[in-house]
């Protein structure tokens, strides 16, 4: 078997590491930095801590604090225009996936003409380089700080899509668990489940490789053990350290191995119903992993093992899938993830939604091809499970 994998982004990790932000940006030779975050980062005081670090290092800052969830292309394009006018030479993003994805989109447009939608679909290797970028996550879920893609909402098309390019890669990720202390339980749960989805999908997808597998397995072990503790006690630093490490591991795994149908479903439901990304990806995840067992039973067994669930040696592929489905469903319920029925998602349009799922970019690398009608069946099975 011939495989390939890469380690894309240098990482500084540990309690208090975010206080080195200014020093690290200055070491890159930068003088004027665009700092991207949402208004909640200002309210928590995190944004000011990062700004103070930058100012203490002698850097001039320009602030964009208009980040919103599921960043729309129109917002990203406006932020890029502000960055160009200000003449910044670097970007620091502070926050969850939305802030980091906004930064990536801005970087794409710094030296490449809008609209951002021009660069969706397939890997964009021909883009002009952008600026130096540093990403500082404040949630433990997206792993976006170490990935080469940004997920955006295309307003006119009413869907989510991705830009995949080296221009989306950070020059440095600063992973500080202190910034996740006190994250509300529901956000802790949703982001943690997002990381879990990254891990189990990258482990079972068509682009899996040994390095990604190892990272994914360890991420699953950590998330299953530490996410319930982080939800219960938001100030447990040990739990937060393990969760942010698991999120980064899962991000590294899916950057190399990619995700598949669970995220295709998540992107589609997220765009239609404006759900938090982790919740959207969890809606049919147990069914997705059960489906993969037909061809990837050995990987699904590994998921069960990482979750501490026993599978007998003589279990056939269908049995392995069913055991994994129930284990994952139980884990998601324990984390408080709602099903479609609880979210008041109507059942009637699921057939059309299934067709949209098959048009998502991630659907191209599902473990084995199934029709939209089979995806519809899968969604119906998950609807009130």
From TrEMBL:
Instruction: Give all residue intervals belonging to the Alcohol dehydrogenase iron-type/glycerol dehydrogenase GldA domain.
Output: 11-177
- Which keywords does the record carry? NAD, Oxidoreductase
Q: Which GO terms describe its molecular function?
A: alcohol dehydrogenase (NAD+) activity; metal ion binding
Q: Which residues form the Fe-containing alcohol dehydrogenase-like C-terminal domain?
A: 188-383
- The answer to keyword Lyase applying to this record is no
Return the PROSITE patterns for the record: ADH_IRON_1
Give the matching InterPro entries: ADH_Fe/GldA (IPR001670), ADH_Fe_C (IPR056798), ADH_Fe_CS (IPR018211), Alcohol_dehydrogenase_Fe (IPR039697)
Q: What domain of life does the native source organism fall in? A: Bacteria
What Gene3D superfamilies does this protein's entry cite? 3.40.50.1970, Dehydroquinate synthase-like - alpha domain
Mind telling me which SUPFAM superfamilies this protein's record contains?
Dehydroquinate synthase-like
Ribosomal protein keyword on record? no
| Family named by the database record | Belongs to the iron-containing alcohol dehydrogenase family.
Protein name stated in the entry: Alcohol dehydrogenase, class IV
Q: What is the lineage of its organism?
A: Bacteria, Bacillati, Bacillota, Clostridia, Eubacteriales
